[in-house]
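JOB MANIFEST
job_type = single_chain_structure
chain_count = 1
residues = 317
[input]
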Amino acid sequence: MRMNIITTRKRSDSGRQALLQFENKGAVLIILAGIFWGTMGLFVRSLGAFGFTPVQIVCFRLSVAAVVFAAISRVKEGPVRIPRRDIPLFLGLGLGSVLIFTCCYFTAIQMMPMSVAAILLYTSPIWVMLMAVLFLHEQLTRVKVMALVLSFAGCVLVSGIGGGKVAPLGFVIGLCSGIGYGLYSILGTLALKKYSAYTVTSRTFIIAAVGCLAISSPADMAAKAAACGNGPFLAVLVVMTGIVTAVVPFLCYTLGLSTVPGGKAAILATVEPMVATLLGALVYHESLTPVSGCGILCILAAVVILNRKSPEPGLEG
């Protein structure tokens, strides 16, 4: 009997270790997604030099991603039928999350200092955690709250405190970018209960790309592309923008959501502003202030706290 108990405990321990390893792989994928998203500024500035508007750059990005994801999904799974009852879920992912949050974010950048827009975008972990508690019944723990505070403080410090008044409309639009950004974690988690990561990402980006084409003036985009004088380079840049800033990170993030709760994933992804700040300093020689350095340390601390292996006590017990 004693030997049976010991054997059962060993099996249980080994099962827990396997689960932890599986969850850690998901966390690594989420962090990788944040790193790739952090390179977005490099591509936006390069395409902006050709005269494309932010919405048009978003259209390039989403269109390339939609084609690539559709091809991957077709090869991996073949035709996948989406029942009518799940169409609103994918409309929410494509239009309500990916397209809306991106358009809101770039609009906010035009209406207020970029630092303020970035702070409002990275309110997303707050919205994700609240939505996850309300709709997904995730447990709110002391560790999550601590990591949330650290990550948001880090985003504020990394972005800097912008000067000037923010119009109420701009503030609302900025908050909508954060809500839309966070909504992907919630809706993505629900979609992954029924569909694979390949199906979720492909359908999401096809819907988002179609929606973006309707608001990005395709004729104007074609005219600017024809007048650029370096078509092959522009084509490569557009494809790389879609792959590096959309295909790779969204696939990593969606796969990570298979094992990482939405609230935790949203906080892990806040490595994005840290990466953007470092790239700005290295590539464009933007100053990295002691305040920004403190912000980077806060974000790293949040990531470390969320990935510790010990159990997390609840807020009420």
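[summary]
The chain has a mean pLDDT of 80.
The two ends are 34 Å apart (CA to CA).
exit_status = 0
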